[in-house]
Amino acid sequence: MLWPSGAVQARRYAAGRIGRRQVVGLLCLLVFWGVLLLAAFHERAVSDWWRLRSYHAPATVAQLADQTTMTPYARKVFYVNAPVIADKTSFSHNCPNNGGEKTVILGCYHSDQAGIYILGVTDSRLDGVEQVTAAHEALHAAYDRLSTSKRHQVDAMLQDYYQHDLKDERLLATIAAYKKSEPHDVVNEMHSVFGTEAAQLPAPLEQYYRQYFSNRSQIVALAQQYQAVFTSRQAQVKADDEQLQNLKQQIETAEADLQAQQAAITAQQAALLQARNSGQTATYNAGVPAYNRLVDSYNNQLQSVRTMIAQYNQLVATRNAIALEENQLANELSPSAQPIQK
Description:
Radius of gyration: 39 Å
Strand order of the largest sheet: 1-3-2
Number of domains: 2
Structural class: mainly alpha
């Protein structure tokens, strides 16, 4: 069939217009799916941006980030979790059982970037606790973000250090405690404990932690500082207890000797009195010097025993004061502890 030339041109024009619409629609669809795929690929970044778009870290929280030398990335992870420095009531509510922590770490991280809580500590003798806790919990949040392949790599480094290079008895005891209480999260805890409390790490691990802290040794120093508050007192109490035990044995030995001397003095005194009463003056006079020397020796040893007893009692008072101070510090770090009533 033949068509007029004008009709053919109109048909061709309509067909071309429909083709362009299809191309535009296809492009729009591709852009739409591209945006969705891009958003899915960068879901974490988008989520972080959304959470931080109106977040302003309180000065106390920002100070913790500064004091622990958090890198911009670590600070972002920390802030995404909207850290809260909580009082004991709030902390106990948000971190039951202290979040399972086994060290002097007073904080908890809620998985899937759902929040970080840090117990507020006001006692200046415990400076460093809040800072190390902040770094410890930030590392939990960072570990939660690791990809599967990266986590396997990091886990292998942590396990290798633990099995071959870790010599710190306190950290070994800490990991042993986690193995009993949280057997499925031990490596996660290693990630936080080693990163904040291990003084020296293998080069690959040190390099890994540099993405979180520009000066990790500063955090370790803070941890050692407040740990020493307890270990120094515990060591002093132990030394005092050993000295008290030695003094007690010396006092008991000296007192037994005094009793023997007193019995000898009593017997010699009776003999002298009998000699004098029976008219044996020469015997009496001859025995008096020896008797007096025995009495002098007894009195000197009695004074020595009294001095040791006074030293013992003073040491008991000093030892108990240190132990009480240690208990008070421990109560300061116990979310469930109540003030001691006077």
